[in-house]
Specification:
alpha+beta; Arc Repressor Mutant, subunit A; 5-stranded mixed β-sheet; 3-stranded antiparallel β-sheet
Length: 368
C-alpha cells in the first residue's frame, strides 16, 4: 500500500466531513455535534456549518426546527447541539464545586417556578424572583438568574426547550442515567470527538481528550486511559514526522473518490474542517485567525472572516454583510489575488448565490 501523504489526509478530511444530507436531523446525527456561536455575521456559526451539509438549508432552520427534533443543546468540547442519545455519555454530571446554602435556596425557587410554568426564559425568572447578582469566576458580578440557569443546565436539571429570538427557554430535564461504565463512557466520548474532527494530529487528539473534561468533569481521571486506548486502536499513519489518527475502519482514500472538489465553499470559523488551527496550518500552510474579538486596527482578515475553500485548498477568506436585503461580500486571497480562469469564477458565483439563498437576501452586490 502506498504511504499516506498530507494531501491524502487533507482530501480525506474534506470528503468525510462535507457530506451533503437530505435533512437537518441526518446531518447532525452524522456529525455528532455542531458548535454554536451567538455572533451573526452574516449568520450564526451553527447555521453556516449546516448550510454546507443540508440541502436547501436556510439561516435559522435549526432554531425553528429544534423543538421537534431529538436534539439537545449541551456542553461537549465546546457548547453546541448534539443528538439526544449522546446525553448518557455526559450525564449525570458531578459538579466540581458544591453550592452553598444561599445558592441552593435560589436554585429551589427557580426549579419550583419551572415546574409551575413548564418553561421559563431568563426575563421571566428575573421578574418573578428578583435574584440579584452573584460573584462570577473572574471575581466580578454577574446576573444571578443567567448564572444559575446556566449552572442548572450544565448539571442536567434543566434543558433548553427552544429559543425565542436567540434567547434560551428552559424546561425541566428528566434524569439521565447511563448504562455504561465510566471507562466505556470516556472511550465513547473520545470516539465521538475523533469522528467529528478526524483526521487529527497527535497533539490535537490529546487536546480533545483534555477538553472532554468540560463535557464530563466526573470522567477527568478516566480520560487519560481512554486516550491511551485510542492511540492503540484508531487508524493511524505517520506523515512528515507527525502521527495522525482517524476512526477505526475508515479508508483514507475512498471518500475522496466520489467527493465534488470542484466547488467553492465558505465555511464557518468553527466548522469541523477548520476548527483545529494546528491542522489548518499543516494542511494549508497559513495561519487562519478568528478576529471578532481582535481590536479593529489589528485585524488582518476581518471581523468574521469565513475561510474560502476551493478544490482541496483554503485559498482565502470572505467577509459578508447584509444591508437592505442585499448581500455584500469582501474577499481576500492568500496569494493576493483570485485564481485565474473560468472554473473558479463560475464556482465562486455559484457559492455566492447559495449564500444569498441561505440568508434570504433579495439582491447581491458584486464581490470585491
Amino acid at each position: 500500500m502506498q504511504p499516506v501523504t498530507l494531501r491524502d489526509l487533507r482530501r480525506y478530511a474534506l470528503a468525510r466531513s462535507l457530506v451533503s444530507q437530505p435533512s437537518l436531523a441526518r446531518a447532525i446525527d452524522r456529525l455528532g455535534f455542531v458548535q454554536a456561536d451567538p455572533i451573526r455575521a452574516p449568520a450564526r456559526a451553527q447555521d453556516l456549518t449546516l448550510a454546507q451539509r443540508v440541502e436547501g438549508y436556510r439561516a435559522g432552520d435549526l432554531e425553528r426546527r429544534y423543538p421537534r427534533l431529538a436534539l439537545e443543546e449541551d456542553h461537549f468540547v465546546n457548547y453546541g447541539f448534539l443528538p439526544r442519545r449522546h446525553l448518557e455519555l455526559m450525564h449525570p454530571r458531578t459538579p466540581r464545586h458544591e453550592w452553598d446554602r444561599a445558592t441552593r435556596r435560589r436554585v429551589t425557587r427557580i426549579l419550583e417556578l419551572v415546574e409551575q410554568r413548564g418553561t421559563v426564559n431568563p426575563r421571566e425568572v428575573d421578574e418573578e424572583l428578583a435574584l440579584g447578582t452573584v460573584k462570577n469566576y473572574w471575581g466580578g458580578s454577574s446576573n444571578a438568574t443567567t448564572w444559575l440557569l446556566d449552572a442548572l443546565h450544565f448539571r442536567g436539571l434543566l434543558r433548553v426547550a427552544r429559543r425565542e429570538g436567540g434567547v434560551r427557554v428552559y424546561a425541566r430535564r428528566a434524569p439521565t442515567e447511563s448504562q455504561r461504565s465510566n471507562p466505556e463512557r470516556a472511550d465513547a466520548l473520545l470516539e465521538l470527538a475523533v469522528t467529528l474532527y478526524a483526521p487529527v494530529p497527535k497533539p490535537t487528539l490529546g487536546q480533545l481528550a483534555s477538553r472532554l473534561r468540560y463535557a464530563a468533569p466526573e470522567l477527568a481521571t478516566e480520560l487519560p486511559a481512554a486516550l491511551s486506548r485510542a492511540r492503540a486502536t484508531l487508524g493511524h499513519a505517520e506523515v512528515d514526522g507527525v502521527d495522525w489518527y482517524w476512526p477505526t475502519g475508515e479508508d483514507v482514500y475512498s471518500a475522496a473518490r466520489s467527493f465534488d472538489f470542484e466547488r467553492v465553499r465558505f465555511v464557518a470559523p468553527f466548522d469541523p474542517v477548520v476548527w483545529d488551527r494546528r491542522r489548518f496550518e499543516a494542511f494549508w500552510g497559513w495561519a487562519y485567525r478568528f478576529e471578532a474579538y481582535t481590536p479593529v486596527k489589528k485585524r488582518k482578515l476581518g471581523y468574521y472572516a469565513l475561510p474560502l475553500l476551493w478544490c482541496d485548498e483554503v485559498i482565502g477568506w470572505g467577509n459578508f454583510t447584509m444591508a437592505d436585503q442585499t448581500l455584500a461580500s469582501r474577499l481576500g486571497f492568500v496569494r493576493g489575488r483570485a485564481p485565474v480562469g473560468r472554473a473558479f469564477a463560475r464556482a465562486l458565483d455559484e457559492e455566492l448565490e447559495r449564500m444569498r439563498m441561505f440568508l434570504g437576501a433579495t439582491g447581491r452586490g458584486d464581490a470585491r
